[in-house]
């Protein structure tokens, strides 16, 4: 089973022209990570915009540059368009200094999506770390909205410290929607009574039926490798393991060559792939 | 005067000085005309007004890391093969503006720039160049997103192609099935014979333009003579493959099973051997007519109130090509050379349906250390799983 | 936290020794997946199903301890003297307190129960005797133990790499274009 193909662009649209957006709200999440609500200046553009979980937008700061950001809002309702990002490079650091009301540009949505539609009546294990929970949150919202369509759903999530656990205030809502959540950290603190260890180890808490289980994973690449390892050790089929890869994305339209990963362009063939597609390449160093 | 439109597929004879009439007709029609000229010791494309600016009596000698021109004492206009330029220099130029932004207070007005409108007529592309053109069409026009800058430049393009009469030692278009005879993708194709030119009409527009020159119909014998010219280049390439005193003089790329050969040998020792020589300078990617890696950057004026998004050529050999906040993926030259070669000859097929290499040999000629991708492939074939 | 407990003593409920339950627990452990049923039958008499409430100290660093544990449910924190904080927690499916079956005497960490935990406790000396008496079983059990240690090592390595931090990893140890044989070989 492959990820759902990305939406085609309209033939007459110039793929380089951003839509104007203003910053509607800035929500600090955990240290270094914030969620930006971006509102379209044009009502028509707002009405026309829709995305699937796992897709990303290119957010443009005129004079500074463009950066790919995961869309982290609810894809099912008509709620605000949210982007969660870690301040790590020059563009994202500049974004972190912006105020509500400032104008930015937005191109998108781009990329492939989490295939929740292909997982009906099956069990899902969402295994992620750090800011990797952000592109999976829309998939969680999707599942919560249609909970009866799925079997058992687990969230295995890890961060550096307890204070870095992203979207923590939503965990109870998700637990109430019958999603079993296991969290872990690399470094505990004086008050932390939870797991201390890595996300892949959380797989040992689960009793899974390989044939009817899907794994969706996003986070640091090395964490992804170990999650895949645990999934394969439990005989989960290779096309039931879905990974969101990251590479240097410059154009988001598959024409600059930067984001290539083997034969794949992460911006348009991904970022969500099945392990089956990537298996020949995932174990080569520096590919 | 009655104008006759020459039909597609017909051959006409034109005296050599009459080529000027074709250039003049193109300029009358509003084209910018470019063609091969000699500059800085190489044959490069430049704006042309007169056929006297063409490299008459000039020939080239090319080998790994070597390019030399010399006067051959003859009167031929096209007795050389490809130089460092290709159609890419005009259709996908080294710099292009993608977006212009003007600040108004705290708002930004964003608009696309005016696309180039003057059509281009190019004299000189070879068969390998036309295959490369088709490949770039596939990349920029034939995929999910259309590149509007490329589309605008491509739309009005007039191609006057040249059939190669000889090959240099770095040519290997016969290995890639991309020449030397020009077969499609042209408005006019020119073959140079000792006394005159033979023009083949490839499009309606080509027929109209050719009709502007004093032309004469061709006899069957003359057509056969013209068709024999690229055949001579083909035979030359084939002969050079035969080892003489143990070393072949020409290049040959064995493409059988090439995709799997390269992708099954990503950890081959040979990548380290190439990396010992490769300077990661990126010359190969600049002269390659199908390479399309580029980057987009902000260019601001001093006030910061007017900003352009500019696309410029980039290369996968650059250290920051694969840079992300979590680190650079391809830190070593070994990984970058491997990326270039496996993309060009293997994963390109997965992406675009055919090989990215057209056998023009430019990468071999213009590599400062003469790295020869046909030899690198042969080395991997010799030592690893098929 | 239970004060002044003797090593091995617990603030547990009455241990359950129902052999059916023990066999079911042993069969359910991934750790023992490749061990044949006849050997599980041999382990069963040496094993006890135990429940521990939060705060229980299973064993202390530096002291000897007679059992090893296979955690079925719950969570146990591993504390090291001078570390100032918990470095790792051990959860279901994991092996805890392997020192006695590897020939050591002093435990290398203090194990403190975080959540109510259910575990199979096996008498280490009797388990070793079983391994010596039946080398085939001994080999399999030690192989499984080695695998568990390898998993723990890999997980610790991943923890050490600090993958969520914002810093770029250091430049490679090997110089540009050095041959592969000159690279630093990774341990484990």
Describe what you observe in this structure.
The complex is a heterotrimer of chains A (287), B (386) and C (188). Chain A starts with 18 loop residues before the first strand and ends in a 5-residue tail after the last helix. Chain A has 2 domains: 19-110, Translation factors (Elongation Factor Tu (Ef-tu), domain 3, Beta Barrel), CATH 2.40.30.10; 116-282, 3-Layer(aba) Sandwich (Rossmann fold). Chain A is built from 6 helices and 15 strands. Helix content of chain A is 17%, strand content 29%. In chain A, β1 and β2 (33-40) form a beta hairpin. A 7-stranded mixed sheet of chain A has the order 10-9-8-7-11-12-15. Chain A is an alpha/beta fold. The longest helix of chain A is centred in the C-terminal third of the chain and has 13 residues, at 221-233. The radius of gyration of chain A is 18 Å and the shape is globular. By secondary structure, chain B is an alpha+beta fold. Chain B folds into 2 domains: 11-92 and 114-241, no CATH class; 258-292 and 317-383, no CATH class. Helix content of chain B is 32%, strand content 23%. Chain B has 13 helices and 16 strands. In chain B, the strands form 4 sheets. In chain B, strands 3-2-8-9-10-11-1-12 form an 8-stranded mixed sheet, with helices on both faces. In chain B, strands 7-6-14-13 form a 4-stranded antiparallel sheet, with no helix packed on it. Chain B has a two-stranded antiparallel sheet with strand order 4-5. The longest helix of chain B has 22 residues, at 220-241. Chain C is built from 4 helices and 6 strands, in the order ααββββββαα. Chain C starts with 18 loop residues before the first helix and ends in a 28-residue tail after the last helix. In chain C, α3 crosses α4 (135-160). Chain C has helices at 19-28, 37-43, 124-133, 135-160; strands at residues 47-52, 57-59, 67-79, 86-90, 95-96, 110-123. Chain C is globular and about 50 Å long. By secondary structure, chain C is α+β, with helices and mostly antiparallel strands. In chain C, strands 1, 2, 3, 4, 5 and 6 form a 6-stranded antiparallel sheet that branches. Chain C has a single domain (19-161), classed as Jelly Rolls, CATH 2.60.120.10. The interface between A and C is medium-sized, with 32 and 25 residues.
